[in-house]
User: Fold this.
Amino acid sequence: MSEESNISESTSPAPSRHFIRQIIDRDLEAGKNNSQVITRFPPEPNGYLHIGHAKSICLNFGLAKEFGGRCHLRYDDTNPAAEDVEYVDAIEADVRWLGFEWGEHHYFASNYFEALYGYAEELIQKGKAYVCSLSADEFKEYRGVPTRPGKESPSRNRTVEENLDLFRRMRAGAFPDGAYVLRAKIDMASPNLHMRDPTLYRIKRIHHHRTGDEWCIYPMYDFAHCISDAVEGITHSICTLEFEVHRPLYDWILDQISIPCHPQQIEFARLNLTYTVMSKRRLLQLVREGHVQGWDDPRMPTLCGMRRRGYPAAAIRAFCETIGVTKYDSVTEMELLEYCVRQELNAKALRRIAVLDPLRVVITNFSDTEGINVQAINNPEDETAGKRPFPLTREIFIERADFAETPPPKYFRLSPGKSVRLRYAGFITCEDIEKDPETGEVIALHCRWDPPETKVKVKATIHWLAAPTAREAEVRLYERLFTVADPMEDKDKDFTDFLNPNALRTTTALIEPALSEAGAGESFQFERTGYFCVDTKDSQPGQPVFNQVVALKASK
Ligand code: ATP
Ligand code: MG
Assistant:
C-alpha cells in the first residue's frame, strides 16, 4: 500500500449517517419526491463566503452528489440594499474552488419576482393576506411579546377588492416607502411571533443589481424563500437552526398557495469557530475599517482569504465532514481546522529550506572553494517526489533561535563548545562567536564541520542554507486574528478590541533557489518551520512572497 492511500483515508473520514442523511435514507426508501434529492445553497450576495458557508456548501452539494441528485446555486437577492454583483462573482469562484458544480441550475430569487407577486395576489384573493397601514412603531406595539397575544391591526378586515387595489398601487409606485406593507393573515395570538401576521412585502425604492428600478416593492425573505424552493422543486431545504421558528410560516405559505411542490425544511447547527468572527456584517466591518487588507486577507475566515493563505480545498471539505451535522449549537476549535490543513499539506507539500531569521555560520575547516554536495529529500511522505542537490559551503545560514550563547536547561541545539547535526550534512561544533562591537549582538559563529560518519553525540538536527545559494524573500507570518477564543463574549466591548496586533508579521527570509521559481498558489513545507504558500497577489515571477499557512505542529 502506498502512503498516499492511508493519507486520503485519514483526511476524508468515512461519512457518518448524520440525521439529515437518515432523513434522506428514509425518504428514498418511502419513494418520496419521486426518489429524487434536490438541494440548494442560497447565499445572499451581500458579502464574501466564509468557512461557515463551507459547512452549508459541503452539506448541500455533498448530499446531492452522494444521493445522485443535484444542488442549485440560488442567490437570495431579495434585499437589494446590501447586495452587489461583486459578491455574486466571488461566491461562484468560491463554490467552484471548494470543488462543487451547479451546471445549469444557477438561479436568482429575483428571477421569481413576478411569480412571487402573483402568489401574493393569490393569498389576497383567498383572504389570507391584507395591506396594512400601521406605522412601524404601531406594528411593533400591536405584535406584542411571546407571553402576551398581539392585537389585530385595524386594516385586517379590509375587503379582498380593497386589498388588491392597494397592493397593485403599492407595486405601481403610488405610495411612499413605508406607507403600507402586505401581511399574511394568520394569528395575532400565536405564541410564535413569526406567525403573528408577518410582513410579506414592503415598499422600498432601492435600485436592484439585477432588476434595476423595475420594482419598488420587495418580498420578505420568509415569503420569497419557501416559494423559490418550491418553484425549483427542491426536496430538502436545509438551513441553520435559527430558521426553526420560521418553519411553521414556511409550511403555512406553501399550504395556502396553488403550488404543487412542498419541500421539507430541515435545520442544522451552524458552524462557530474559536478565535474568529463569522458574520458577514462583522467581516465587512473589518474590511471597511481597515483592520485587514480586504476580504481575501489571509487572516480572514473567508474562503478567498483561506485560499490565498494556502488552505487546500480538500482540507476544508475534510474539516466539514469531520465536524458532522447536528441539531445543537456548539463551538468548534480552530485547531481542528488547522489539523485538517496540516494533514492535507503533509501528504502533498514539497519540503524546502528557508531560514526565517538568519545567523551566519563560517565553517572554519572549509576553504572558500571547498564544500560538499548532499541530496535533500523532496517529500518523505511521497517517495516519487525524489531528491534535489543541496550544497554545503564555507558560509551557511542557520536560524538565530538555533543558537544560544548561554543555553537554558534542556537546550540541545548549538551553543559555545557544543555540537549539532546539520540536516543531511554531518555536524558542526561551535568554536567561536563573532559579535558586533557596538551592540554586542552575535553576528556570526565559527564552527568546525565533521562528516556524517563521525561519531558525534548530538540531540538535535537543524536546517541551514548555503550562503552563496540563498535568496531573499518576503515571508508573512500569521497568528490568529483575535487574542481571545470568543471575541463576541464581552458585551461591553467591540469585537475589534480583541484583534491580535501580531496577527501579521512580515520578515525577509532566506530561501533556497528551488523556492525562488515557485509559482503563485504553490505550497511547501519549510522544514522545521511550517507550511507556506506563494501569495497569489503580491508575488512576481522569480520573486515569490510567502504566506504562512499553518505551523508544523499544534501549539499548546
Ligand atoms: P452571516 O450570518 O455570516 O451573514 P448568513 O446566514 O446571513 O450569514 P447567507 O448568505 O444567508 O448568510 O447564507 C447562505 C447559507 O449559508 C444559508 O443557508 C446559511 O444558513 C448558511 N450559513 C451561513 N453561516 C453559516 C454557518 N456559520 N454555518 C453553517 N451554515 C451557515
Ligand atoms: Mg442571511
